[in-house]
Amino acid sequence: MVNVDGKIYATDDRCGHMNAPLSMGTIHGNTVECAMHHAIFDVTTGKHLREAHLGGVSGAMLSKTRSGGMIESVKTYDLKTYEVVLEGDIIKIRSD
User: Fold this and answer.
1) Residues 26/58, Cβ–Cβ less than 8 Å
2) What SS3 string covers 45-83?
């Protein structure tokens, strides 16, 4: 959960790139930056704003298979967001 200008937002705690915990990342206003590969997400919408960076190369970098061949581009997916309801001092998150 993140408080942005007095409103609470909830998203998955896992980066849309390699499932790193976003709670270890850095919040800047309405964005969170993943501590692992620096993907950036808007916590109010869940949309990814910047692809992950692997070894200084952007998310367009090709990944290697175990056999060493190149296969597919690395992709960063948007985060799932959840409805938040405030009831007094209680924060409820709808997860369906």
Assistant:
1) no
2) CCCEEECCCECCECCCCEEECCCCCEEEECCCCCCCEEE
CB-based contacts of 62, cutoff 8 Å, min separation 6: 70, 71, 72, 73, 74
CA R_g for the chain:
15
**Token digits for 18?**
């390699």
What's the whole-model pTM score? 0.77
**Domain 2-94 is in which class?**
mainly beta
Amino acid letter, 88? G
Query: What number is the average pLDDT over the span 67-77?
Result: 59
**Which tens digit of pLDDT belongs to each residue from 80-92?**
999 999 999 999 9
